[in-house]
Design brief:
2 domains; ABC transporter permease; 5 strands; OppC_N; MetI-like_sf; alpha+beta
């Protein structure tokens, strides 16, 4: 039995490997997942939420470069490695974009950066503020690969950090929908009768309410915030899972192996958990991939409406909201870049779901 199971698994893996779009989409998902996990390691701006604002360099084009003066602070950060990895670095130093500088005597004189051909303010600072009175080690040319947003924040860093929201919403929402959907669908499909009628009544009511409207209502009831959105999206996606589980269990509960399990005196819980659910896992995997994509779109829509992840937290949907008017102001990339990221991630999950459907289809 084990050899047959291993053989079927190997056949499924071989079929998946031969599906170009399935492998390609899985690679994209893994790559974006690594970007989201190590966002603060890869981001040029490793501050929390990549929220270093410099209004003098706002809305700059991709590839923009400027000299950045970092003024050291006497406050020492006691942040640990894991905190920096997952939460970003605590900012203790002050950064100032400058256009030029020179050292005269015991003072550092510099000109603040000003855009649109304007001349910035000339200021001076004592060399004693820098260790060993050497300010040049605190001046570097900063490059902004994706440019800056309307607040002067590094756009590449915001994109990398914002990927965490989209990835997390998928996992948490799918987990919540699976837990509720499996319980409700199993009870309805296995017991039938009045239990099935009652659960289907609840499912039909939830199904009739527009998803976005229901998410907005739950979000407003729980309050605006990061976790509230995740819970709200998860609570609206269990219906599809429940319907699939119910239908699958109704089609297999009269099979011989289920009848044999009942004859042996196994409990209903054991029969459902150990004998029925493992045999209907294929459609669950496919619908989970589709729900992953749907959760990302719903979260992006909520962030665009202003009731998703709240500022200064980076979110692809919120980034589109902040910059959609720039499409007609000659800088459409500020809205197109996060939009393309959402499209790429959603399309990858849909393509992988299609590939898994073909691989797990017993008829092929």
């Amino acid at each position: 039995m084990t050899e047959q199971s291993n053989s079927l698994t190997q056949q499924a893996l071989q079929k998946f490997k031969s599906n170009f779009w399935g492998v390609f989409s899985l690679g994209i998902i893994v790559l974006i997942g690594l970007f989201s996990l190590f966002a603060y390691v890869l981001a040029p701006d490793a501050s929390k939420n990549a929220n270093q604002m410099h209004l003098s360099i706002h809305s700059k084009s991709p590839g923009f470069k400027v000299m950045m003066l970092e003024v050291p602070s006497k406050v020492e950060s006691e942040q640990g490695f894991l905190s920096k990895l997952f939460n970003g670095k605590e900012v203790v130093n002050i950064e100032i974009p400058i256009s030029n500088y020179n050292i005269e005597g015991n003072d550092l004189k510099y000109t603040e950066y000003a855009s649109d051909g304007l001349v910035g303010l000339e200021k001076s600072m004592s060399l004693s503020k820098f260790p060993d009175s050497n300010p040049e080690s605190f001046i570097e040319e900063r490059s902004f690969v994706f440019g800056t947003d309307k607040y002067g924040r590094d756009y590449l860093s915001r994109i990398l950090v914002g990927s965490r929201i989209s990835f997390a919403i998928g996992f948490i929402a799918v987990f919540i929908s699976l837990v509720i959907g499996l319980i409700m669908g199993s009870l309805a499909g296995y017991y039938g009768g009045r239990v099935d009628a009652l659960i289907m009544w609840v499912i039909n009511i939830a199904w009739s309410i527009p998803t976005l409207l229901l998410v907005i209502a739950i979000t407003l009831a729980l309050g605006k915030g990061f976790w509230q959105v995740f819970i709200a999206v998860g609570l609206t996606m269990w219906v599809e899972v429940a319907r699939v589980v119910r239908g699958q269990i109704m089609s297999v509960k009269e099979k011989q192996y289920v009848t044999a399990a009942r004859a042996l005196g196994y409990t209903d819980f054991r029969i459902i958990k150990n004998h029925i659910l493992p045999n209907i896992v294929a459609p669950l995997i496919v619908i989970s991939a589709a729900n992953f994509a749907a959760a990302i779109l719903i979260e992006s829509g909520l962030s665009f409406l202003g009731i998703g992840a709240q500022p200064p937290m980076a979110s692809w949907g919120a980034m589109i909201k902040d910059h959609y008017n720039y499409i007609i102001l000659g800088k459409p990339y500020l809205a197109l870049i996060p939009g393309l990221c959402i499209m790429l991630l959603v399309m990858s999950f849909m393509l992988m779901g299609n590939a898994l459907r073909d691989v797990l289809d017993v008829r092929t």
